[in-house]
Amino acid sequence: MGLSCTHAVPEYIRLIAAGRYDDAYMINWTSNVFPGVLGRTCDRPCEPACRRGRVEDHNQEKPEPVAICRLKRVAADSKNDIRERLPKPPSQGNGKRVACIGAGPASLTVARDLAPLGYEVTIFDQDPRAGGMIRSQIPRFRLPEDVIDEEVGYVIDTGVEFRGGVRINSMAKLLGEGFDAIFVGTGAPRGRDLDLPGRKEAAKNIHIGIDWLSSVSFGHIDKVGKRVIVLGGGNTAMDCCRTARRLGGEDVKVVVRSGFEEMKASPWEKEDAMHEGIPILNFLVPKEFVHDDGKLTGVVFEKVQAVYDARGRRQLVPTGDPDEHFECDDVLVAVGQENAFSWIERDCGIEFNDWGMPVVDETTLQSSLPGVLFGGDAAFGPKNIIWAVAHGHEAAISIDRLCHDEDTADRPPPLVNLVSQKMGIHEWTYDNDISNDLRHKVPLREQKIALKNINVEVELGFDQKLAFDEAQRCLNCDVQTVFSSPLCIECDACVDICPMDCITFTEDGEEEELRGRLNAPAENPLQDLYVAGALKTGRIMVKDEDVCLHCGLCAERCPTGAWDMRKFLLHMTPAGQGCRDRK
Amino acid sequence: MTYISKPKLRHPHLKTNKFGFTHRDYEGAVSTLCAGCGHDSISAAIIQACFELDLPPHRIAKLSGIGCSSKTPTYFLGNSHGFNSVHGRMPSVLTGANLANRDLIYLGISGDGDSASIGLGQFAHSLRRGVNMVYIVENNGVYGLTKGQFSATSDRGSKSKKGATNRDSAIDMVMLAMELGATYVARGFSGDKAQLVPLIKGAIVHRGAAFIDCISPCIAFNNHPGSTKGFDYVREHNEAVNRLDVMSPRETITVDYQAGEVEEVTQHDGSVLRLRKLSEEYDVHDRVAAMHHLQKSKAAGEIVTGVLHVDREPDDLHANLNTLTAPFNKLTEKELCPGSPALEKFNASHR
Lengths: 583, 351
Known about the structure:
The complex is a heterodimer of chains A (583) and B (351).
Chain A: H1 9-17, H2 21-32, H3 35-41, H4 51-55, H5 68-78, E1 97-101, H6 105-114, E2 120-125, H7 133-136, H8 145-156, E3 161-164, H9 171-175, E4 181-184, E5 190-191, E6 206-208, H10 209-217, E7 227-231, H11 235-246, E8 251-255, H12 267-275, E9 280-281, E10 284-292, E11 295-308, E12 314-318, E13 324-327, E14 330-333, E15 337-338, E16 372-374, H13 377-380, H14 385-402, E17 415-420, E18 422-424, E19 427-428, H15 447-450, H16 464-471, E20 479-483, H17 493-497, E21 503-506, H18 511-516, E22 529-532, E23 540-544, H19 553-557, E24 563-571
Parallel strand pairs in A: 1-2, 1-4, 2-3, 4-16, 6-14, 7-8, 7-14, 8-9
Antiparallel strand pairs in A: 5-15, 10-11, 11-12, 11-13, 17-24, 18-19, 20-24, 21-23, 22-23
Helix pairs in contact in A: 1-2, 1-5, 1-16, 2-5, 3-5, 5-16, 6-14, 10-11, 11-12
Chain B: H1 38-52, E1 60-64, H2 68-71, E2 81-84, H3 90-100, E3 105-111, H4 112-116, H5 120-128, E4 133-139, E5 142-143, E6 149-150, H6 173-180, E7 184-189, H7 193-205, E8 209-215, H8 231-237, E9 238-240, E10 242-247, E11 262-266, E12 272-277, H9 287-299, E13 303-310, H10 317-321, H11 333-336, H12 340-349
Helix pairs in contact in B: 1-7, 3-5
């Protein structure tokens, strides 16, 4: 499972397959706060970890994980009114006051976790509406406004005070206002600039990507030149070029320094841009903005190639070819983002490192001033929404313990649960048949319509039928094979039926040697072998979990119940009574 | 049985054989037998043996009679020829098929009911005629399909699941096969594939009547204390007299053995049966001495397994009958209807 959203993915995928969208949504909402937003925009750290990709290796032409992210969206799109199931503002406060700076995903998560517990949470943001980068930087054709309004609204409705249009200019002043804790979730609001010849002169037509996107979002900008060059290869660059395409840009191109493969943008975002007729040109380093008396006319690029030294480090070396000149009317610079903490006085007790970043504890998210915490992009530099949410949860736990005079270094253990899924001789609580479907594509809106209006969402999302088919690709990884040696009679039934040749009964040995002599080689050293001894013949049972399909056939063919399928549930303890010391 | 079929997905890095097939390409439909049935393990061993020998599936014919064992050909070699015949009549159908086309590999799959009771006569005659085949009896010592009565191979004194004691003598299929002239005789155990797979491979490369008695515990009706065909009993009383490796003609021999420990028997196709002796006195070529040893071990309550007899110079039915080498389906009208002069000549030879 992915790193940052430790929730039960197969569990909610099964609920989606069963048409229980409300329940699927609530599982998501509890852990990631923004299922509808993330179901459209997530960086999907979970998908590379999805087993489906591994088991399709050498079986399908293009092995692909389950479309976890887009299934999440189905839960959000298809649910009924779930407001009754959300936590209500408490009737009585606990007397503690928390300030959150910035109304992005990190702060909103802190607020949602704490407000229902009785905390008086106030969120400050310079923008008039809450959402942070979700609202200001992600274009509407990827994320409609009503989705943001809905999910941000759910947070505010837990009893949070939002003070929009208020810019906090002094941490020292804020510290004097008597808050019990201050959470800084201000993101990485400053776009990097390119200081090249012609930058100043042609400034009118050279825009910083995130600022430009934000202006588009808030309606301050509604058109762009016909020929647009986007500099940079991250997801912001992809948003810039696709936005430009909708604001009048006809000849829009993305130009990156590195190779196409090394670009930071998610592969699917690159695909989406190219699908809209936007070429991505690589190995071109911008050298000069060309202008005609202050009117931008183009950009000059130096051609480079990647050269690797003996240690495998890459360098971009000029090829010596003549420079390339591309004509354009506007340039969007999306070459990275930086934090901006000028509003935090360096003498107010918060320690900063040499790079101008606050010193933040990775577990508790506290700064050197225990009552001031950082999360999201503000803590460790630009990452993504799902990380910001994870930080928010952790910060909320820290604040809750802090406000109860408990050590924040003691983190609450997660709740784990392992229960048999057997319903009958060959019946399980889950559908154990394995679908052979390839990953289903999300239907898109017709391009003619999509490119005309920036507010028209491009992806239509899975309908319920497609969602069911895609959900069936899920291998129910959380339902684990559990083996009991005393029950085993070594009949080999499990070995014979296992479609992936995962199970071997053999003589004991050292792991490395053992891995080589299993029925099928166990090639992923990161995946532990499941070993059980004390069998009657003196042999051991070895199972290589790496490509197990969780089809449960070993358990179905086992005559003695030595194999069982048990569902593993990991429940992260949230802020509140459960995260505090037992007294 | 299971409600779902075996998923098509397979391990990404399975070994492939000469044809680029993995062992999974030799599978059949998913088994409908009881969970844990020994027969399923034998099916898996057959799959493995055919995969390892690089056999083209369409050159194999699998034939069976009636019973749990005789259902199993559906569960392996899904791309081979199959014939599910009448109870106990598999040997005759197989003999006929073999006479019509000697180019195929014939796998006869039978059980203790099918071969030791209703089909005992058929069993006997196919062996004494030396039909080139692999005849496997999946021997569980019980009528599983009719809920657990003693079969003809149940040992005298063994107990049924309900506690009744068997008063009849058991038919020892191995002794019978040796007596009847099978030229390759082995006994295996479904719970030991390391031994069973080579035994099946050896039987396939053997050009003559090959017989394997494979003890196959019936989980539902014959795997309890008092049974002599259950997992625990067979494991406790198993006396393996040798270990077999089957080397195909293209494999080079890499392991050195001390003289006397290993015996090699070259087969017609150039394959080598390499026998590592586990019992000093046991000689697979001395039929009389081997039968003597089997009788002694049986009296002592041991179950002898391994290759029990190999004839160095096996005959087969076609050699004895001096038949044409070409299969019937390759003969044209000209050969099949040689005309009146040929008939005249033939009739004259009988006058």
